[in-house]
Specification:
Length: 433
């Protein structure tokens, strides 16, 4: 497990003997943390086409349409033959996050989903495997006799974008194929809202609920990414009840937050969501990102930074506190933090798809690093209180913001490499709180 951030240590004892007051566990016998996730396996395919191409396949310019397996195969074959494809990247909000987590932490994550049982070199399924970190364990994917999901983005000469979406067999994951024994070894289960609003005849919906029930029984943190506001709208009460019963952490953008809570202000949306879960990440585009969580009165730490105005006055007062589960607090105290885009955002935003997934992967890295540290140094002062994360809420914001920036600055929705080893632009106390 690679710990997040560049940390400075002061040693008050001979470093070759170690800290005499902290007795570490035998690291060789401590299992590395594993993050599990269930996803609809799909590939994002981007191509430059003429308007006649769209018309020939019944696509409408500037719109998004579902297409059949046959049409998707015809489109893909022609795009390949004519060399019109610009990029093919593995997608899926959960798989993106698992990949990024593996890159950041250098630890294993485990993906549950479907995959073509016959894979041709150079095909979309092949691209999916090639664009996924080797640290993501794909051994438990369920083989299917047919295509996985494909999301085509067609770019016209005038720059207009049209979309063709083919689900293939990405929703055919069955609960019988899911290895519950692997979940028992994990430190978190990641799901998306897409899984739970599939058609009733899609087995992935039942499979996801089966794993969620098992994770709840095992007291494993369940992390939910909301995906899109259209899934939430009209079903707000169902989602609120589901989150309250199962979810530890939710990740959303301001639109999804509004659909879930009714608040357009992302800070108020994050605050409202705390009524149902323990930790909230809300990305807000050019405004940056907000986080909300709980700490205990005895563990609160005031910020040394400027107190920020907002819908909640001086909302960041306790942002130097580490987040906790509400159930682990004695005198619960809500806390919030905000950060503007790193360096004002990239000079050129090459891709917005996956930025939120990148931010969430940073949060999960810090959470699982905390779990690992608890195992290897159980009597550390870090664990005198039961916290959800290794770092403060303020630092979680900074880390999430930095990873999100990296995704925005590249074409792929997934990190292609880890973050730079040195961040000269960061202040001295970046990881000190």
């Amino acid at each position: 497990m690679k710990f997040p951030g560049q940390r400075k240590s002061k040693h008050y004892f001979p470093v070759n003997t170690g800290n005499p007051f902290v007795k570490p566990a035998n690291i060789a016998n401590v299992a590395q943390p594993v993050l599990c996730g269930i996803d609809q396996t799909l590939v994002d395919i981007e191509a430059h086409v003429e308007d006649a191409f769209l018309t020939r396949f019944g696509l409408r310019k500037g719109e998004s349409l579902m297409i059949s397996d046959d049409i998707a195969e015809q489109i893909y074959t022609e795009l390949k033959q004519r060399d019109l494809i610009v990029s093919e990247f593995a997608g899926g909000t959960v798989a993106n996050t698992l990949h990024n987590y593996a890159i950041l932490s250098e630890s294993q994550s485990l993906l549950f989903g479907t995959m073509c049982d016959q894979i041709k070199i150079g095909s979309y399924a092949y691209q999916y495997l090639c664009n996924t970190s080797s640290k993501v364990n794909l051994n438990y994917l369920q083989p299917v006799k047919g295509p996985i999901g494909r999301c085509f983005t067609f770019i016209s000469a005038d720059g207009d974008r049209s979309f063709g979406i083919n689900a293939g067999l990405m929703n055919k994951l069955t609960k019988e194929h899911l290895p519950v024994d692997q979940l028992q070894k994990s430190s978190g289960l990641l799901i998306s809202a897409y899984l739970l609003r599939c058609a009733d005849d899609d087995p992935i919906k039942e499979a996801a609920m089966h794993m969620v029930d098992q994770a709840k029984l095992l007291n494993i943190p369940i992390i939910l990414t909301l995906g899109t506001r259209f899934i939430i709208e009209g079903n707000e009460k169902w989602w609120q009840d589901f989150i309250h019963e199962y979810v530890t952490v939710i990740a959303m953008n301001e639109d999804e937050g509004e659909a879930l809570t009714g608040f357009t202000d992302p800070l108020l949306a994050a605050d409202a969501a705390l009524e149902w879960c323990d930790l909230v990440l809300c990305t807000a585009g050019a405004e940056g990102l907000y986080m909300a969580g709980y700490t205990d009165e005895a563990n609160k730490r005031e910020t040394s930074g400027q107190l920020l105005p907002g819908a909640i006055a001086e909302f960041n007062r306790y942002e130097y506190s580490r987040p906790m589960r509400l159930a682990d607090t004695t005198e619960p105290l809500k806390m919030y933090s905000h950060i503007a885009p790193y360096l004002g955002g990239p000079v050129e935003i090459k891709n917005t798809n996956g930025a939120g997934d990148g931010a969430l992967s940073a949060i999960l890295h810090d959470m699982l690093a905390n779990s690992y540290h608890r195992d290897i140094v159980p009597n550390s002062d870090k664990h005198s209180a039961s916290c959800l994360a290794y770092s403060s809420l303020s630092q979680l914001c900074k880390y999430a913001n930095r990873v999100s920036y990296e995704v925005l600055a590249q074409h792929s929705p997934r990190l292609l490499k880890g973050l730079p080893e040195r961040e000269d632009s960061l202040d001295e106390g970046y990881w000190s709180s």
